[in-house]
Amino acid sequence: MISLTIPRVALRAAAPSRQFAAAANGSVRGVKTLTEAVGEVIPKKREELAQLKSSSADKSLGEVKVSNLLGGMRGLKIMLWEGSVLDANTGITFHGKTIPDCEKELPNAKDLGLGGKEMLPESMLWLLLTGNVPSNEEVKQLSAELAAKGKLPSFVEKIIDSFPKTLHPMTQFAAAVGALNHDSAFAAAYTKGIKKTEYWQPTLEDSIDLVAKLPAIAARIYYNVFGKGDGQQKIDTSKDLIGNYAEMIGYGGNEGLTDYLRLYIAIHGDHEGGNVSAHTAHLVGSALSDPYLSYSAALLGLAGPLHGLANQEVLGWALGMQDKVGPNASHEQIKEYLWDTLKSGRVVPGYGHAVLRRPDPRFTALSRFCDDRPELQQSSIVQLVKKVSEVAPGVLKEHGKTANPFPNVDAASGCVLHEYGLSEFRYYTVIFGISRAIGALPQLVMDRALGLPIERPKSMSIAALNKHLGNN
Ligand SMILES: CC(=O)SCCNC(=O)CCNC(=O)[C@H](O)C(C)(C)COP(=O)(O)OP(=O)(O)OC[C@H]1O[C@@H](n2cnc3c(N)ncnc32)[C@H](O)[C@@H]1OP(=O)(O)O
Ligand SMILES: O=C([O-])CC(=O)C(=O)O
């Protein structure tokens, strides 16, 4: 039987520190749980939405042109999304905070004494769900809650173990996430007849549970396909989400990579609502599919080469260039390689964006990380990323098609993983997939809290369009 109140978690893993053990039990005096924090913000959100509806329901947000219908709905303001907003020139803000703001304000690895100094994905999750910056204690408590919920049910382990190694890791990831719906609190509560106003509670319960389990799913796939890690997915409640993930995939002793994964997973979390993965989670969730089903669908969209898979593509492309011209490509050689790519009819992976018209601030954040880490400064692949970012915008401008000739986040992300030894690039989008949950799931909670309806835009055939427009 499913309880509709959010249960206090029980610790399962061995030897937690006292502080973390207390946090996981939800018993640290005066420290709010994420569930309590979300419960506090929902009445205000509902009030804001009611006011917006009563004051402005009939106001226009712009015209819909045939070019919008034929052009992937680019630029149309047609979704509500609370966690983040993307500006074409200044990039992403999370509840109004830029990435540098988040780097200053969100509790990071140093604040929590974890080794490293990058912001924690837990801090970003809290910000995205509540709009508020958590305290160090709140983040510690959340890390412990996630650790306590991180172990996979054995049937999901068996499902993952049954996949052929040749099945793309993203297909494995989406299938395993979908299978977790077996234990969905939302699905069970819905079957029992939960009230609509309470939908958000089991949605949040499932969402926290899913974020907690993603590292173990990802690590098991990594072990099965690439043989790294010990195959056990042991979780230590004294570690943060990414500390545990790094350990599970066999890089626990690598502080640089662990800290890089924290930054990577925090900043890839949310990119407003219209990108393929976030939009998919929202669309599927609008049919009241539970968070596991909704996020499984989102992962399948993330697996496309024009979206998340681009980070895998970039590395293959960059290594191909190194194979062809050697490790220290000149600007001229890079230019030639870029033109070869374009002339063969392919896109330059890691460049261009549907919304951005300036270099992606996430690319800037990853470049800043590389500048900060002495071990990355001599890396030929990291140097190559930098040089390509100096040459490609000019070539893409000259080519004349791309609306945005600047690097997006994928231009840098995979190359840093490669430098740290995580060189299996078919796996890279799985790491992106751990991250995107941190943005897509909070919106699902908000969708249910605000009672948003099933999404169902109007489509038209060419004949219907011609008739509507009075064309012959
Ligand atoms: C996390 C993320 O998802 S970030 C995006 C990751 N994807 C990539 O890096 C793949 C490479 N980039 C692209 O394919 C595109 O720039 C996208 C998919 C990101 C955006 O697509 P759009 O909004 O349609 O881009 P845009 O309006 O600039 O496209 C106009 C033309 O330029 C082309 N173009 C866009 N970017 C590139 C590029 N990097 N290399 C070559 N051509 C490009 C498009 O294919 C399109 O050509 P077409 O008219 O022949 O169809
Ligand atoms: O915003 C987009 O369309 C693509 C993107 O960068 C993301 O989803 O992170």
TrEMBL record:
Q: What family does the database annotate?
A: Belongs to the citrate synthase family.
Designated name of the protein: Citrate synthase
Q: Where in the cell is it found?
A: Mitochondrion
**Which domain of life, per UniProt?**
Eukaryota
Lineage from the top down?
Eukaryota, Fungi, Dikarya, Basidiomycota, Ustilaginomycotina
GO cellular component terms attached to this protein's record: mitochondrial matrix
Organism, by scientific name, is Ceraceosorus guamensis
User: Which GO BP terms, alphabetically?
Assistant: carbohydrate metabolic process; tricarboxylic acid cycle
Which PROSITE patterns does this chain map to? CITRATE_SYNTHASE (PS00480)
What GO molecular function terms would the record report? acyltransferase activity, acyl groups converted into alkyl on transfer
Which of UniProt's keywords are assigned here?
Mitochondrion, Transferase, Transit peptide
Question: Which Gene3D superfamilies is this protein grouped with?
Answer: Citrate Synthase, domain 1, Cytochrome P450-Terp, domain 2
Which InterPro entries does the record cross-reference, listed alphabetically? Citrate_synth-like_lrg_a-sub, Citrate_synth-like_sm_a-sub, Citrate_synthase, Citrate_synthase_AS, Citrate_synthase_sf
